[in-house]
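Notes from hallway chat w/ T.B., transcribed later so I don't forget. T.B. wanted the structure written out for a chain they're using in a teaching module, and asked if we could keep both sequence and structure tokens in one place. Agreed to drop them here.
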Amino acid sequence: MNKYDKKELARNLKPAGSYLDSLSDFADLLGTIRQAESAADKLLEETAPSRPKPTAPGAPVENHVQPHAPAHPAPTKGENQCIGPESPTANPAEQTDAGELGRRNDQVCSSDGEEGLCPAGEDDLLAGLDALVGLENIKQNVRSLINYVKIRKLREEKELPNPPVSLHMVFMGNPGTGKTTVARIISQLYRSVGVLSKGQLVEVDRSGLVAGFVGQTALKTSEVVQKAIGGILFIDEAYSLVPDAGSVNDFGREAIETLLKLMEDNRDDLVVIAAGYTGQMERFIASNPGLESRFNRYFVFEDFSSPELYEIFNSMCSNSEYLLTDDAAAFAHEYFDEIYESRDDNFGNARHVRNYFENIVSVHSDRVSALPEPTRDILTTVLLEDMEKAALL
């Protein structure tokens, strides 16, 4: 290879943005750039005739609108807007299960695919709590708890000492009694009074905390807690974290120990609610001294009474525009009396009501679909036979 070949090879190997060898090289490069700019401007003018021409600095700018451009539509659900109840009160019909119970108590904001909580006032949140069917002792306890934390905040502002306190809670009761709904309302109330910075509710069970291999449970639990910081971590069926007697390969104990440490590390901006059946939750708390010291507030969710079950059911019908005939309504009263009196430790409460309502809708649909041209009254009227068939499903 001669010296000219070596020089050409070195030129080709120079990194982008390296120096030029001579003024002539610079002139050639500058001319190429200007030609490219001129060609680009010409292409833009040909392909986009409506493109506004550049204006001199300080000159007024015209408001150019593309022809036939669609008007910006009003946001729909999921497009950076608040989705909440039309009124501040909750809908008793939505007292269905731990996942759906009272969702109108929430105002959900979504932006870029992520959900958060819109600011909600304390009065609206308490009104939503009061609108729930039953739960009178829970409503009183929540109000007392909010009063307590508000006074603590006021004492802090006045530079008065506060005794150490744990705001972590245990919710005990059967399924469908409103535990998740109340937790969701408390998370927003805590945010409104300044106890929590965000107020989100992160729901999880054993499967969300415990992994199947050594060392992974601590990591999995830490990731969940990180998502809950600023709000409430709601652990459903928390008793399932306690290993059975004689179990050696259960990582639930590791999840509990990791959780306890993270609760302490983030005690100023994290609240944990452990929920489950009453007897089993007592066993859960007694399984570890750290749990006993951190969970010192207990909320007992009683089963709904027969009239309360009917009230929830009637509201479901009303919201979906189903009307009961007199004999159908009488059957519903008898039905809820019977299931309440015969309930066991696993009674589903509002969850059972939701299942029965869905069965009625299915039976009603089968009957009405066989009619040639059902009227509005037929589409909305529930007969005694619909109630009876649904009760057998």
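Follow-up for T.B.: The domain at 136-301 is CATH 3.40.50.300 (Rossmann fold). Might be a good example for the class.
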